[in-house]
Design a protein that fits this description.
Strand content: 25-35%
Number of helices: 2
Shape: globular
Radius of gyration: 16 Å
Largest sheet: 4 strands, antiparallel
Strand order of the largest sheet: 1-2-4-3
Helix content: 10-25%
Structural class: alpha+beta
Number of strands: 4
Length: 108
């Protein structure tokens, strides 16, 4: 966010069931730990949003980035049987929500 702004990080335990709206096409019903990252920056255009997890995709100038950051995050989350939901609106900001499978609660 070159012009500054706020970033909010949230965590929660959540259930996605068959009656819920699935957050994204990779979502599978179950118990999840949620990590949400929200900013009030410039937002991401729809055309760009469709490609952000592709390896080597970048909107930066040559020499300013490799385009591997979000592809790496996506791969790590997917390897752990999780998924990422992302929504953005130009001029409003972006929300990334990472869902990782929750382990059963510890027994006392």
């Amino acid at each position: 966010m070159p012009d500054g702004g706020a970033i909010t990080i949230t965590t929660a335990r959540t259930t996605i069931d068959t009656q819920s709206r699935l957050p994204c096409k990779e979502a599978v019903p179950g118990e999840y730990l949620l990590l949400g990252i929200r900013d009030d920056g410039a937002g991401i255009e729809t055309e760009t949003l469709e490609h952000i997890f592709e390896p080597f995709f970048t909107t930066k100038e040559v020499g300013s980035g490799t385009g591997l950051g979000l592809a790496t995050v996506y791969g790590i989350v997917a390897q752990n049987k999780g998924f990422i939901d992302v929504s953005s609106q130009v001029g409003v900001g972006t929300v990334f929500t990472i869902y990782l499978p929750a382990l059963p609660a510890a027994l006392d």
